Amino acid sequence: MFDLTGMTALVTGASGGIGSAIARGLAAQGARLAVSGSNADKLEAFRASLGGDHLALPCDLSDAAGVDALVPQAVAALGRLDILVNNAGVTRDNLAMRMKDEEWDQVIRVNLEAAFRLIRAAAKPMMKARFGRVVSITSVVGQTGNPGQANYAASKAGLVGMSKALAQELASRNITVNCVAPGFIRSAMTDGLPEAQKAALTQRIPAGDLGTGDDIAAAVVYLASREAGYVTGQTLHVNGGMAMI
Amino acid sequence: MSETADRVKKIVVEHLGVEADKVTEQASFIDDLGADSLDIVELVMAFEEEFGVEIPDDAAEKITTVQDAITYIDEHKS
Known about the structure:
The complex is a heterodimer. By secondary structure, chain A is of the alpha/beta class. Chain A has a single domain (8-236), classed as Rossmann fold (3-Layer(aba) Sandwich), CATH 3.40.50. Chain A is 48% helix and 13% strand. In chain A, helix 4 (101-129) runs parallel beside helix 6. The longest helix of chain A has 29 residues, at 101-129. Chain A starts with 7 loop residues before the first strand and ends in a 7-residue tail after the last strand. Chain B is mainly α. Chain B has a single domain, classed as Non-ribosomal Peptide Synthetase Peptidyl Carrier Protein, Chain A (Orthogonal Bundle). Chain B is 56% helix and 0% strand. Chain B is built from four helices and no strands. Chain B is globular. The two termini of chain B are 20 Å apart. Chains A and B meet through helix 4 of A and helix 2 of B.
C-alpha cells in the first residue's frame, strides 16, 4: 500500500527539518521529486543526499513571479506532476500590537499566498491528467491560536479554509486537497530549548514526547497515495494528542 | 463547415463526452451540453493548446456557445 512508484512530486521547503523528512518519505515510496527551497546550496546538498534521479529547483517563495514559474519548471523537468506538497513556512513572531506590516505580509505571502499560487498552477496539469494530490502543511496553531503568532496562525488557518474550497472545486477531477497539521515536532529549534521548557511542553502532550519529521512524512505519504483518493478537504492532525479537533 | 469548427467540435465531444450531433454551433456549453464551470476552464485550456491562441479570462467568460468559441479562435489564431 501507499506505493508512489511512477509518481512525481514537488515539495517546497524541502531542505528544512520537516520538509526533508517529507521528501525522504515520498522518495522512499518510489516518487520522483523536484525539491524546492530558498537556499540553493543547502537544497543541492539535500538533493544529492537523496540519491536517485531527483532534481532541485531553488525558489524564493516571497517572489510571486518565481513562485508562478515553479510548477511549470517542475512539470517540464519531471514530465508530469502528481503530488504537490506545500511545506515551506516562515515565522515572524511578535505580539500583534508590536507587529510590523512587513512581518504580517511576509508570513502571509510565503505561507498562504505562495501555496495558493502553486496549487493554481498545479491544478492545470492535474486536471488534464485527471489525477492530483495536494497536501499543505498547516499547524495545530492554525486551530488553537498562539500568542505572538497572529500572522502565522492566520496563514495556517487560511491554508485549511483554502484547501476546503479547492477540494470542492477539484474533487470531480480526481484531485484531492488536504492538510497535515503538525503539533510540536523535534527540530533544531526545539533541541535548543532549555530542559525545563521542554518538560513543560511535553506535559501538554498525552503521548509524552515531541513528534518527529517522520511522523509528518507518514501522514503526507498517506494523503499523497492513490489509496487516499476518497479523502479530500481534510486536515490530518499529527500531534500526539495535544489537541483533538 | 470550417476547419476550425470541426476541430472545436471534436474537442467538445471529447471533453464533455456528448454525442457529436448535439454539438451544433448554437449549442450552449452549460445549458445544452451539460458543462459546469470547471468544464469551461478545461475547454478553454484545450482550445488554447489546439489552436495556439491565448484566451484571456475576460474573453473566456464571453464564450458560452460553440459558435462563440469558433468565432474567437478564427479572429485570434495566427
